[in-house]
């Protein structure tokens, strides 16, 4: 849930776009803390910050990729079902 910071490889799976400077500070401190008791306290603090600032925590984001041979096309469905009957010839250009 860290804010996106690609150079530090933080927040790369934060698809919901959550961003909070206080959370980031505590989280970044927690991930470098070796003492398990102190680390647990920091993670609990980060969790509380997130809970106080986010009305919804997304648990799943669907990303589907389909590949077809040249000359075919397919429009993905919202329910993620892949039906062979939906594969169509591509428009010739």
From TrEMBL:
The protein's name in its UniProt record: Putative N-acetyltransferase YedL
Keywords: Transferase
SUPFAM superfamilies found in the cross-reference section: Periplasmic binding protein-like II
Taxonomic lineage: Bacteria, Pseudomonadati, Pseudomonadota, Betaproteobacteria, Burkholderiales
Gene Ontology MF: a single term: transferase activity
């Amino acid at each position: 849930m860290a804010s996106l910071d690609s150079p530090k490889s933080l927040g790369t799976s934060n698809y919901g776009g959550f961003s909070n400077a206080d959370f980031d500070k505590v989280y970044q401190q927690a991930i470098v803390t070796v003492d398990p008791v102190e680390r647990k306290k920091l993670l609990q603090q980060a969790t509380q910050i997130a809970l106080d600032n986010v009305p919804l925590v997304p648990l799943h984001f669907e990303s589907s990729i389909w590949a077809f041979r040249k000359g075919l096309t397919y429009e993905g469905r919202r329910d993620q079902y892949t039906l062979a009957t939906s594969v169509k010839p591509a428009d010739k250009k």
